[in-house]
Design a protein that fits this description.
The complex is a heterodimer of chains A (149) and B (51).
Chain A: H1 3-21, H2 27-34, H3 38-50, E1 55-56, E2 63-66, E3 69-70, E4 76-80, E5 83-87, H4 90-100, E6 105-109, E7 116-120, E8 132-135
Antiparallel strand pairs in A: 1-2, 2-3, 3-5, 4-5, 4-6, 6-7
Helix pairs in contact in A: 1-2, 1-3, 2-3
Chain B: E1 3-6, H1 7-18, H2 31-40
Classes of the chains: A alpha+beta (149), B mainly alpha (51).
Protein backbone atom coordinates (compact mmCIF):
# COMPACT_ATOMS: atom_id res chain seq x y z
CA UNK A 1 0.00 0.00 0.00
CA UNK A 2 1.39 3.41 -0.94
CA UNK A 3 1.39 6.29 1.51
CA UNK A 4 -1.44 7.89 -0.45
CA UNK A 5 -3.50 4.69 -0.33
CA UNK A 6 -2.83 4.25 3.38
CA UNK A 7 -3.92 7.82 4.12
CA UNK A 8 -7.13 7.29 2.17
CA UNK A 9 -7.89 4.04 4.01
CA UNK A 10 -7.17 5.67 7.37
CA UNK A 11 -9.43 8.61 6.53
CA UNK A 12 -12.24 6.25 5.48
CA UNK A 13 -11.79 4.13 8.58
CA UNK A 14 -11.85 7.17 10.88
CA UNK A 15 -15.02 8.52 9.29
CA UNK A 16 -16.78 5.17 9.30
CA UNK A 17 -16.00 4.77 12.99
CA UNK A 18 -17.33 8.23 13.80
CA UNK A 19 -20.48 7.61 11.75
CA UNK A 20 -21.11 4.27 13.41
CA UNK A 21 -20.22 5.04 17.01
CA UNK A 22 -20.23 8.81 17.49
CA UNK A 23 -16.69 8.61 18.82
CA UNK A 24 -13.16 8.80 17.48
CA UNK A 25 -11.44 5.47 16.91
CA UNK A 26 -8.34 4.59 18.88
CA UNK A 27 -5.05 3.99 17.10
CA UNK A 28 -5.52 0.28 17.72
CA UNK A 29 -9.03 0.24 16.30
CA UNK A 30 -7.89 2.02 13.14
CA UNK A 31 -4.87 -0.27 12.95
CA UNK A 32 -7.03 -3.38 13.11
CA UNK A 33 -9.53 -2.02 10.61
CA UNK A 34 -6.97 -0.86 8.06
CA UNK A 35 -4.50 -3.70 8.57
CA UNK A 36 -1.44 -1.57 9.28
CA UNK A 37 0.55 -1.23 12.48
CA UNK A 38 -0.14 1.57 14.93
CA UNK A 39 3.10 3.40 14.08
CA UNK A 40 2.06 3.65 10.44
CA UNK A 41 -1.45 4.72 11.45
CA UNK A 42 -0.01 7.42 13.69
CA UNK A 43 2.19 8.71 10.88
CA UNK A 44 -0.76 8.67 8.50
CA UNK A 45 -2.89 10.66 10.94
CA UNK A 46 -0.09 13.23 11.25
CA UNK A 47 -0.08 13.63 7.46
CA UNK A 48 -3.87 13.95 7.39
CA UNK A 49 -3.60 16.58 10.12
CA UNK A 50 -0.91 18.48 8.19
CA UNK A 51 -3.19 18.45 5.13
CA UNK A 52 -6.18 19.70 7.16
CA UNK A 53 -8.15 16.53 6.52
CA UNK A 54 -8.46 15.72 10.24
CA UNK A 55 -7.26 17.59 13.31
CA UNK A 56 -5.13 16.04 16.04
CA UNK A 57 -5.10 17.60 19.48
CA UNK A 58 -2.11 19.95 19.73
CA UNK A 59 -0.70 18.30 22.86
CA UNK A 60 -1.98 14.71 23.00
CA UNK A 61 -1.88 14.18 19.19
CA UNK A 62 -5.07 12.15 19.54
CA UNK A 63 -7.87 12.61 17.02
CA UNK A 64 -9.70 15.80 17.92
CA UNK A 65 -11.80 16.49 14.84
CA UNK A 66 -12.71 14.72 11.63
CA UNK A 67 -14.87 17.50 10.32
CA UNK A 68 -17.82 17.68 10.83
CA UNK A 69 -17.33 15.35 13.81
CA UNK A 70 -15.71 16.27 17.11
CA UNK A 71 -14.05 13.66 19.30
CA UNK A 72 -14.83 15.71 22.40
CA UNK A 73 -18.10 17.17 23.70
CA UNK A 74 -19.02 20.55 22.24
CA UNK A 75 -21.92 23.01 22.27
CA UNK A 76 -23.44 21.18 19.30
CA UNK A 77 -25.10 17.83 19.92
CA UNK A 78 -26.52 16.10 16.87
CA UNK A 79 -28.92 13.19 17.23
CA UNK A 80 -30.77 10.96 14.79
CA UNK A 81 -32.89 8.34 16.47
CA UNK A 82 -30.59 6.40 18.78
CA UNK A 83 -27.44 7.74 17.15
CA UNK A 84 -25.60 10.84 18.38
CA UNK A 85 -22.51 12.85 17.53
CA UNK A 86 -20.71 16.01 18.65
CA UNK A 87 -20.17 18.64 15.96
CA UNK A 88 -17.47 21.31 15.98
CA UNK A 89 -19.75 24.25 15.14
CA UNK A 90 -23.16 25.10 13.72
CA UNK A 91 -21.93 24.59 10.16
CA UNK A 92 -20.59 21.17 11.07
CA UNK A 93 -23.77 20.23 12.94
CA UNK A 94 -25.72 20.87 9.74
CA UNK A 95 -22.94 19.09 7.86
CA UNK A 96 -23.53 15.83 9.71
CA UNK A 97 -27.10 15.76 8.40
CA UNK A 98 -25.94 16.80 4.93
CA UNK A 99 -23.12 14.28 4.77
CA UNK A 100 -25.12 11.33 6.08
CA UNK A 101 -28.33 12.43 4.32
CA UNK A 102 -30.38 11.72 7.41
CA UNK A 103 -32.82 13.77 9.48
CA UNK A 104 -31.21 15.10 12.65
CA UNK A 105 -31.99 17.20 15.67
CA UNK A 106 -29.31 19.71 16.68
CA UNK A 107 -29.35 20.98 20.23
CA UNK A 108 -27.25 23.98 21.15
CA UNK A 109 -27.71 27.40 22.70
CA UNK A 110 -28.01 30.88 21.27
CA UNK A 111 -24.60 32.58 21.24
CA UNK A 112 -26.35 35.91 21.75
CA UNK A 113 -28.74 35.24 24.66
CA UNK A 114 -27.80 31.73 25.82
CA UNK A 115 -31.30 30.32 25.37
CA UNK A 116 -31.51 26.65 24.33
CA UNK A 117 -31.90 26.17 20.58
CA UNK A 118 -33.06 23.20 18.56
CA UNK A 119 -32.68 22.92 14.80
CA UNK A 120 -34.15 20.00 12.89
CA UNK A 121 -33.49 18.73 9.41
CA UNK A 122 -35.38 16.26 7.28
CA UNK A 123 -32.21 14.97 5.60
CA UNK A 124 -32.65 16.77 2.29
CA UNK A 125 -33.71 20.07 3.89
CA UNK A 126 -34.13 22.13 7.03
CA UNK A 127 -37.39 21.54 8.85
CA UNK A 128 -37.67 25.25 9.62
CA UNK A 129 -35.31 27.60 7.79
CA UNK A 130 -35.70 30.56 10.13
CA UNK A 131 -32.62 31.58 12.09
CA UNK A 132 -29.06 32.76 11.59
CA UNK A 133 -25.55 31.38 12.05
CA UNK A 134 -22.66 33.49 13.29
CA UNK A 135 -19.16 32.97 11.86
CA UNK A 136 -16.61 34.56 14.17
CA UNK A 137 -13.37 34.09 12.24
CA UNK A 138 -12.65 35.28 8.68
CA UNK A 139 -12.18 32.44 6.19
CA UNK A 140 -8.51 33.18 5.57
CA UNK A 141 -7.77 32.68 9.28
CA UNK A 142 -9.81 29.51 9.93
CA UNK A 143 -6.75 27.31 10.16
CA UNK A 144 -4.71 29.71 12.30
CA UNK A 145 -6.45 28.24 15.36
CA UNK A 146 -8.98 25.68 14.17
CA UNK A 147 -9.99 24.83 17.74
CA UNK A 148 -11.19 28.41 18.22
CA UNK A 149 -12.72 28.65 14.74
CA UNK B 1 -17.56 41.06 14.70
CA UNK B 2 -17.65 38.20 12.25
CA UNK B 3 -20.35 37.40 9.75
CA UNK B 4 -23.99 36.46 10.19
CA UNK B 5 -25.62 34.28 7.55
CA UNK B 6 -29.12 32.92 7.29
CA UNK B 7 -29.73 29.37 8.44
CA UNK B 8 -30.77 28.59 4.87
CA UNK B 9 -27.40 29.74 3.53
CA UNK B 10 -25.55 27.86 6.27
CA UNK B 11 -27.48 24.75 5.30
CA UNK B 12 -26.62 25.23 1.62
CA UNK B 13 -22.99 25.65 2.61
CA UNK B 14 -23.11 22.49 4.75
CA UNK B 15 -24.64 20.47 1.90
CA UNK B 16 -22.07 21.70 -0.61
CA UNK B 17 -19.16 21.32 1.79
CA UNK B 18 -19.91 17.96 3.36
CA UNK B 19 -21.68 15.91 0.70
CA UNK B 20 -19.35 13.02 -0.03
CA UNK B 21 -16.93 13.98 2.77
CA UNK B 22 -16.83 10.43 4.13
CA UNK B 23 -16.56 8.78 0.72
CA UNK B 24 -13.50 7.24 -0.89
CA UNK B 25 -13.47 9.68 -3.80
CA UNK B 26 -13.51 12.81 -1.63
CA UNK B 27 -10.64 15.26 -1.97
CA UNK B 28 -10.00 18.57 -0.33
CA UNK B 29 -11.12 21.63 -2.29
CA UNK B 30 -8.49 23.97 -3.64
CA UNK B 31 -8.65 27.57 -2.37
CA UNK B 32 -10.00 28.64 -5.77
CA UNK B 33 -12.76 26.01 -5.59
CA UNK B 34 -13.62 27.08 -2.06
CA UNK B 35 -13.78 30.72 -3.13
CA UNK B 36 -16.03 29.84 -6.06
CA UNK B 37 -18.34 27.91 -3.74
CA UNK B 38 -18.60 30.83 -1.32
CA UNK B 39 -19.33 33.21 -4.19
CA UNK B 40 -22.05 30.91 -5.56
CA UNK B 41 -23.76 31.08 -2.16
CA UNK B 42 -23.46 34.85 -1.93
CA UNK B 43 -20.70 34.67 0.65
CA UNK B 44 -18.61 37.51 -0.70
CA UNK B 45 -16.46 40.29 0.69
CA UNK B 46 -13.26 40.39 2.74
CA UNK B 47 -14.59 38.07 5.46
CA UNK B 48 -15.08 35.24 2.96
CA UNK B 49 -11.77 35.70 1.12
CA UNK B 50 -9.83 32.46 1.61
CA UNK B 51 -6.36 33.72 0.76
Amino acid sequence: MTTEELDREVRLSVYRHFVRTGHAPSLRETSEHVGADTTDIGASLERLDANHVVVLHPTTRRLWMAMPFSAVPTEFRVTSGERAWWANCAWDALGISAMLQIPVEITTSCTDCGDPLTVRTTGPALSNPSGVVHFAVPAAAWWDDIGFT
Amino acid sequence: MGAVVSLETAWALAVAWYTGRSEREWRRRTPAETQALFTSLGLVGPFWRVT
